[in-house]
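Extended Data, panel c. Modelled sequence:
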Amino acid sequence: MTLETGYGYAVSRLRAMELRILGKSLFQRLLESDDFKDAIKTLGETHYAKWLSDDKGTQNFEYAISMELQEAYDEVDHFTPDKELSQLCRLPYDIHNVKVLIKGQILKQRGSKKRTDLLTKLGNVPVDDLILAVESEDYRLLPFGLHRAVPESLMLWEQTHDILSVETLLDSHLFLAMRQLVQKVGYKGVEAWARAKIDSENVRNILRLRRTGMDAGRAIEFLHDGGWISKEKVLSLLSEPIEGWNRILGFADVSRVFEGVPETGNVDDLVSDIEKALDDYITGVLRPYRYSTFAPENILTYLWSKEIESKNVRIILVGIANGVDKESLRRLLRNVQ
């Protein structure tokens, strides 16, 4: 944990970097694009241009989104006093890579081709190191508890052949690693952000499980410790109408996500709106620290803003490419500065 006064330089660097975050006017122009080609041209007028000038960017916009986000992480890593703050944001990508590699092992056993193209360089652990560890079955040097998570996940697959349970186990390791990093840095706002992330994931999981009709006895396996709300309280939402969730969670800040939820039992029509509201809720947790010159939480604020920017760009480009109407896309956009 670094003294907060040591963040003056880091925050000043972030203020300059914030000029690269796409604003409302640019997203409005993207939404007004006549077609996908026009949208790519508009995005090419921003800092994404360096990635779009490559053939990979024009043919695969995911490349441009990934590279822009990776550059943001790499630059922040150079001046962040507490490296754990960046590691916190990168951890989900480590878990994503582990999931890809484990599924690759399963496909290999079945005689199919592994999908290494789905791996990302955004994680903390170099992709090559992770591949070597999995293929050699030597996990000892993997950090963030991955030396336990990977073999436990493979063993669970051998026992159950239930990939959903394997993914849930890995998510539990993710949130455990997050809590350990949070405890290490000891910043109040960082803890609040991590707890909000866990609460949001638990609510998302309940929404998904509700759609599948899963019973409470099995559903609790897919909820995670460490949020502001206990797993048991979140589980109680499973049998309640969604319009009543605001009342049940009224003691927690996340309850405002459900304000104004219409009285309907059609979960499919609500999932997208609620997931957007959950992302906006997490953004709001960090907002108070935006105006503090020495707050370490500014590191998370910037990186989370770039994550949201990436999600918004992807929503618009995928939507336009698939002919989704503009008002529907506008409703899906996360908090735009």
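The chain has a mean pLDDT of 90. This feature is highlighted in the accompanying rendering.
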